[in-house]
Amino acid sequence: MHEIAKYYKEAISSLNILENVEPTLVVVSIEELETGASGRYVSSINTLYVANNLRKATKKKTIEHELTHWQDAQKFKEKYGYVDDYSLIEYMKKIGKKELDANGIDQYYLSEISNYARLTYALSRYDETYVEYRLKKRGVL
Known about the structure:
Layout: H1 2-14, E1 24-28, H2 30-33, E2 39-42, E3 47-51, H3 56-80, H4 85-102, H5 115-122, H6 126-138
Helix pairs in contact: 1-3, 3-6, 4-6, 5-6
């Protein structure tokens, strides 16, 4: 737990996220996430979940990944005045696909980003692929 909290605070600081708006961090078992994912951000309750039994590098990447979803949620909320998980995901799928296409990112380039990027692109989850692309650009991956 202490290590996750440390990485979380480091990421909050590096992303210039103000303490009064940061998401609540909840550390859970991977079984509690139900999807097999290592983390999840729930915009409707501004909560970031991270699995407790991850390797060090995976903890850092997961926190950065989920905080990028948080940033997307904040931009959505500023634009539309509210945020809910379904609307945010659908919106970011469209934005993600547009941005990936504009940057020449297709199924042939994805293995250079991450296996998760390749998988989510194949499933048309461009919101997830776009997060991975931005993490790669920031040097997190």
